[in-house]
Amino acid sequence: MSSISLTHDECVARLAGHTVGRIAVTSRALPVILPVNYVLTGSTILFRTDPGGLLAGATDDTVVAFEVDDLAADGLSGWSVLAVGIAQHLEGSREVRALSNVVTSAVSDGRDQLVAISIGQLSGRTVAVPIRTEAVALDC
User: Fold this and answer.
1) Distance of CA 75 to CAs 18, 19, 124, 133, Å?
2) Average model confidence (pLDDT) for the chain?
3) pLDDT band, residue 63 (cuts 50/70/90)
4) Could you report the per-residue pLDDT of 72-95, keeping only the tens digit for each?
5) What is the pairing mode between strands 77-90 and 2-5?
6) Considering the domain boundaries, does residue 121 fall inside one?
7) 140 in a domain, yes or no?
8) CA 132 to CA 112: how far, in whole Å?
9) Alpha-helix runs per DSSP H in 1-128
10) Is 100 part of any domain?
11) Which residue has the higher pLDDT, 121 or 136?
């Protein structure tokens, strides 16, 4: 399988083109990776969570990782984008209230804590199995 790095702009385009990603946090000194609905605004990833839940407790001024990917059904090609940054809870302002209307959650109501990840590092790659073109000898 070959791997090709994505440019910064390609990474941003792929982040912007999806609505579900995975956030990696630490809870009780253990890694936790959970899917979330999100939107990308500039260089910030926004998602909602339960104010009393695990993600709210693990995303208040902490470093997190966020990943989005797509893989072909046959498993032979795909891409992945990884963002690392500081997660912060957003509270109160009119701008925050406006943003909260844009971010949805597929899980349930009550996901009223808006979390912003300021992207500090962004990387990505595509992967694919090389197509082999072999000469075939014909016996005539």
Assistant:
1) 19, 21, 18, 20
2) 86
3) very high
4) 999 889 999 999 999 999 886 555
5) unpaired
6) yes
7) no
8) 51
9) 8-16, 54-58, 94-102
10) yes
11) 121
Look at the chain and report how many structural domains it folds into. 1
45: domain CATH number?
2.30.110.10
| Distant-in-sequence, close-in-space partners of 45: CB < 8 Å, separation ≥ 6 | 15, 21, 38, 39, 66, 83, 85, 116, 117, 119
- Which residue reads 């073109």 in tokens? 133
Q: Establish if 139 belongs to a structural domain.
A: no
- From the list 90, 33, 24, 102, the residue with the least C-alpha distance to 63 is 24
Q: Of how many residues is the chain composed?
A: 140
Domain that holds residue 21: 2-128
List Cα–Cα distances, 127 to 9, 75, 76, 90, in angstroms. Answer: 18, 10, 8, 36
92: its two tokens: 């109160």
**Residue ranges with strand state E in 1-140:** 2-5, 20-27, 30-37, 39-41, 44-49, 62-71, 77-90, 113-128
